[in-house]
Amino acid sequence: DQQVKQNSPSLSVQEGRISILNCDYTNSMFDYFLWYKKYPAEGPTFLISISSIKDKNEDGRFTVFLNKSAKHLSLHIVPSQPGDSAVYFCAASAKPSNTGKLIFGQGTTLQVKP
Amino acid sequence: NAGVTQTPKFRVLKTGQSMTLLCAQDMNHEYMYWYRQDPGMGLRLIHYSVGEGTTAKGEVPDGYNVSRLKKQNFLLGLESAAPSQTSVYFCASGSGPSGYEQYFGPGTRLTVT
Fold first, then answer.
1. How far apart are CA B13 and CA B28, in angstroms?
2. Left, alpha or beta for A11 (phi > 0: left; psi -120 to 50: alpha)?
3. Interface test with B, best of A52, A95, A102 (most B CBs within 10 A)
4. What are the pLDDT digits (tens) for A26-68?
């Protein structure tokens, strides 16, 4: 049972345009959501997160939106740059958590074309 | 700070061989995790530890064992490797309930022939 789903395996956008990566979840107990970025041959690195008490969190070019009623979150990258080309994973944590476990989606490969 | 380090970076095993992957972190994190990444499957949790001397099963624990004898180290063992264990393995650490973010190592690419 895939509790966190990224239904688009890949996305291609032009440099300077907006990239929108989507993530859906099924567990209503998830209370914290994170996005990770992964370059080839490297480990994932934390990008941005959002608590379930918020519907938006912004950090520079990156904004995460959370729609709890739809159990959907999205990552917006504006403007997109070639260096943003990577695999993006969304992840979620359920309350209560004394384990710190994260549930990851399958990942979306973003290609930003110059 | 080295963060999270993993050894080895690459390994090729024959079916039935054993090996241990080592993860070390210097961030004084209580919580450590082992994941595997396979195409189209994302990151799946193998085992985790919430403190020195403790371990627990994750989503895909079969065929693996772990040990956390020291707070900074988390070992992943394959007793009898199978081709299905060909994957990229990532270790991560985190401060647990006080912080959700996990910090990942660079990964170990394992091929079992």
1. 32
2. beta
3. A102
4. 999 899 999 999 999 999 999 999 999 999 999 999 999 999 9
